[in-house]
Amino acid sequence: MKRRRTALLSLTALVATALVGLPAPGAAADEVEQLENGTFDTTTAPWWASSNVTAGLSEGQLCADVPGGTANRWDAAVGQNDLTLVKGESYKLSFTANGTPDGHVVRAIVGLSVAPYDTYFEVTPQLSVSGNSYSYTFTSPVDTAQGQVGFQLGGSADPFRFCMDDVSLLGGVPPEVYEPDTGPRVRVNQVAYLPAGPKNATLVTDASAKLPWQLKNSGGAVVAHGTTVPRGTDASSGQNVHSIDFGAYKKRGTGLTLVADGETSHPFDIGTGAYEKLRLDAVKYYYPQRSGIAIRDDLRPGYGRAAGHVDVAPNQGDSNVPCQPGVCDYTLDVTGGWYDAGDHGKYVVNGGISTWELLSTYERSRIARTGQPAKLGDGSLAIPESGNKVPDILDEVRWELDFLLKMQVPEGQPLAGMAHHKVHDEQWTGLPLLPGEDPQKRELHPPSTQATLNLAATAAQAARLYRPYDKAFAAKALAAARKAWTAARAHPAMYADPNDGIGGGAYADSDATDEFYWAAAELYLTTGEKAFADHVLASPVHTADIFGPLGYDWARTAAAARLDLATVPSGLPGRDKVRQSVIKGADRYLTTLKAQPYGMPYAPADNLYDWGSNHQILHNAVVIATAYDISGAAKYRDGAVQSMDYVFGRNALNMSYVTGYGEVAAHNQHSRWYARQLDPSLPAPPDGTLAGGPNSSIQDPFAQGKLQGCVGQFCYIDDIQSWSTNEHTINWNSALTRMASFVADQE
Ligand code: 9MR
Q: Could you tell me the distance, in angstroms and rounded to a whole number, from the CA of residue 410 to the centre of ligand 1?
């Protein structure tokens, strides 16, 4: 996405200040320089340098000779401490810098000078010999008197020279007004509509009366036309909009455009197999997320890398991981699994919902009326196990399942059978950082009831799905699931600490009734045992209305149980009612979808978009898709298919949230190793990676600096620094996988 800075006023102010040395008219009166001696006229004091850096004055600049061979950016640095930062105040960080030889990337931060060394703002410019000026505005998320401006120079194999001048941190500046470049006002699914499927678009316009629209083929000839339907002000974006329905046109084609109100949409296709490719790409995302194995460049060109966390320095390894102090006195081998997201943590709760959703994609392919199991079969995903006669999707998920099983507390220990909530670094690490280069100590965090039930549910589900391919593994998984179930029953309220968020996410959840329901459901569907059916039937969750506006997720897992009870064959008493409850939920999501001028089945309370809203939209679509699988009614198929339009660009930002799909697509998702935005030698996220999407709470400082006051759909920015709106994770790509597979089946 292009960014336009409306810096006119502040630029004028800056020039005027330079001329007369006084604040210019219009400049805030209280703009205050926070740094001492940023001009290096006679000394470098009070700037400090790490002991491995030789820093000094050189032609009125501070120059630093940086050694090669350090691992992390922060292993070599210069900076200034004891800065006061005020929460909610905006600051402008500016400097000139050059580097010799060309091309070195450094990290400039404003953060905390003491542990836990939080970073409030960071940028990672690539330096040239001739030098450049840099200027950024951000808003401090905290009050502190221990602030720091730091230039982190480490992580280079070779030595280089870094020079800087005119370093300034100006407080009290007006917050930067960020305006996203949203392109043409006709918003379409930039990827593809299905020939026989719904075809809808949204027009942003000031007009209140209906307008003509035209559909053009790639040669520019008008192939269909009609009039728009005025929809008034759209709450999710604050825009005045019309909707356009061109579903009567059913011919396949590429490079079509929709024209209305003098604007031409981004080009799109009708029925050219995009979803078949997405079906694969969405699952192919997982192989390079694997921990504990080298990623083969021949299988993922451009993504090959060393194995992460296998006890090769600087990694401390995952094969002998201790607990946090005081939590346990054993160590576990917890190698393998998928990294959760852009971080190097591995979390049983989030691994659980992701595993379930990939396995349910596979299970659906075997039982649904439109399912095509061969599509994700052996040889489909280009993974090391391709060719072993096991469906590739099962091989991929097995990588995670083996890890989840390793997280179970061993026999003989006080909490035997419970599962540790998570394993991750002792401290948060910076970006970029390849998995194999993470030097942090790894720690097991206390077991939790939810993690234990995630293990029970997914291991039970695995037991029925892997049985035809690996009986021993199926038996092992079922035994682990039973053990976990029993342990969770004995410790029903052992919740993860919501404050345990240093070095990794908390994934805290203070309600386990849904996880008990889910685990019981999977154990029942696999074993048919009455005890598990009784638990399902007695659970208050079984009859509760669980299909609310937000959509199910890692913390709210009741839908995983309900959807499986409704679709996986069983003799559960009252199964028809269960199926009806899914239809009822789908009806509600269809009502939402119809009321939304952008056509998505999502209208959160108070228009507060949740963290990862894109996957919640997809999850509501999964409920609609499941209603189609249950009933065969076309309205559900169409509603589910239409939900993809939002994800692929029919939205207020006019962008596709899936890398590699659509004219303008998210490609800077927050990641420590798909960090091309920070280091051009690293890859961007692979095609088929879903961005989290609009998040009204904008928890990260970068988004806070750009998106204050954002309305719903606008609370998103495609920048690697925005971890609260633009991360990628295994549980979001599982939602994409599930829907991509459904839509591909309808083509
Ligand atoms: O997706 C998670 C969101 O629902 C939580 O509110 C948030 C805070 O716990 O964490 C999100 O998950 C992140 C996790 O904690 C660490 N790895 C990256 C995940 C996605 O941002």
A: 28
Does residue 454 share a domain with residue 318?
A: yes
Last residue of a domain, one of 171, 194, 213: 171
Q: Whose CA is nearest to atom 18 of ligand 1?
A: 341
For residue 343 and ligand 1, the question of a CB distance below 6 A is answered with yes
Closest to 508 in 3D by CA, of 520, 521, 493, 497: 497
Examine the pLDDT at 12 and tell me if it is beyond 70: no
- pLDDT category at 157 given cuts 50, 70, 90 is confident
Tell me which residue has its CA closest to atom 19 in ligand 1: 341
pTM beyond cutoff 0.85: yes
pLDDT in tens, 165-199: 999 999 999 877 789 999 999 999 999 999 999 99
Domain that holds residue 54: 32-171
Does residue 18 belong to any structural domain of this protein? no
Please report, for the domain that includes residue 502, its CATH number. 1.50.10.10
How many A from CA of 592 to the centre of ligand 1?
A: 26
Q: pLDDT confidence of 704, banded at 50, 70, 90?
A: confident
Instruction: Please determine, for residue 16, whether its predicted confidence score (pLDDT) is greater than 60.
Output: no
pLDDT of residue 29: 54
Last residue of a domain, one of 171, 187, 206: 171
Q: Whose alpha carbon is nearest atom 14 of ligand 1?
A: 505
505 CA distance to ligand 1 centroid (A)? Answer: 6
- For residue 496, give Cα distances in angstroms to 329, 347, 354, 440, 570: 19, 11, 19, 22, 33
Whether 675 and 667 have beta carbons less than 8 Å apart is answered as no
Residue 86 and residue 412: Cα distance in Å, rounded? 52
- Give the mutation target among 502, 507, 725 for probing the ligand 1 site: most ligand atoms within 8 A of CB: 507
